[in-house]
Amino acid sequence: MNIGEAAAASGVSAKMIRYYESVGLIPAAARGENGYRVYGPRDVSTLSFIHRARRLGFSMARIERLVDLWRNQGRASAEVKAIAEDHILELRSRAEELAAMARTLEHLARSCHGDARPDCPILEDLAGVEMERQVTAGKLPEPDAAGLVR
After folding, report:
1. Chain-centre distance of CA 107, in angstroms?
2. Cα separation of 109 and 20, whole Å?
3. In percent, how much of the chain has pLDDT > 90?
4. Per-residue pLDDT tens for 21-80?
5. DSSP label at residue 37
6. What's the per-residue H, E or C state across 93-106?
7. Which of 79, 17, 77, 69 is nearest to 43 (CA)?
């Protein structure tokens, strides 16, 4: 099948397929007599695997390792599990960061009058003004290095 068909079958765009080839995540595709890339069922399976791993948020480095492990029938599942568990910890950490961002924005949205007045605590905070004022007044705890209230 050509790259468009492989893209449709795997859920990976043609642009990403070319990228995965360029970084060595998948081997370079065979070329037909016309010079176009040609993909087989194994290529589509690998692309589908990568697509699912990307949707689960794995990094390219981890996906590369997972693809290697997937292809290796002599692998130990312990290594696969360790990669997944490390990723779970990272996802939970990112979820906590997102929750902190949401709390900060909720506070700012509650502080904004949302009317015709030009003053806006949201914009002031983005400029670093409002947060500083509220921390100094004791209305907010000290934000972390990313400016988030935990």
Report:
1. 26
2. 41
3. 69
4. 999 999 999 999 998 999 999 999 999 999 999 999 999 999 999 999 999 999 999 999
5. E
6. HHHHHHHHHHHHHH
7. 17
